[in-house]
Write a structure and sequence with these properties.
Shape: globular
Largest sheet: 12 strands, mixed
Helix content: under 10%
Amino acid sequence: MKRIIYLLVSLIFISCENSEEVQVQIPDDEYIVVQAILPENEIFQGVSITKTLPLNEPYDIKKAEITDAEAYLKINGVQIIPLHYESDGIYKPKYQIRIKPKSVYELFAEVNGKKIYSISQIPQNPEVVSVGYTDSKYLTASIRTKVNESYGAIWVIQSSVTSILAQSEDFFSVEAGNDVDQLINVRTQEIPSKYANSSFEDILYIKVYSFDKSYLEFFKSKNNNRAITNVFSQGGGSVAWNVYGEKVIGLFIGMNEGILVKP
């Protein structure tokens, strides 16, 4: 689970370590920041609710965390699960819940009278029809699409079940189909030349991820502009977030991690 979260922090949440940048239109405004990954069939790890800090102030979770939010999940429009502050801005249920595939999760929250809302459907396991190795540069996969899903792929060099030697830092692109059961292609970033040779051929894999379709618009917009090194601690910007409210940014995203497939 830790490996999945680490990967998604770099792929989805614009890691500070990767120094990706997003321009902010009103840099001194304070925004509420909501972050949650909903990985299919995993135990729900909670929702992070924090606030941005001024641009000239070093990030400090104790200053950024929000401890008095009221929040709950609604599952499939029926089941209500209250969320409670735990630590570092994380809100969790009192008991463990497992994320169910094809279910719809809604987040409702309120902070200082400001209402927050998001909705995400948990995608199915990506259906990989075929994979290929193009010009010894990158891997491709043909995916059979499902409704309200988007897809991205990474290359992975893995020598054993638990030993990953290297992998993509991000997706090359995120794709979605227009119809159910449509075949679409996704490709990885280019494989570094030191790995694109016969020495690594037997341990080179592609892995496809499926997401709630709203992740597609986020991915396309996350690099629109460049100015700030940490979007989640330092501002808003013209990014297609899927969390809604007055001066609220963030992602509440359903995700399904596919298996490794050899080209």
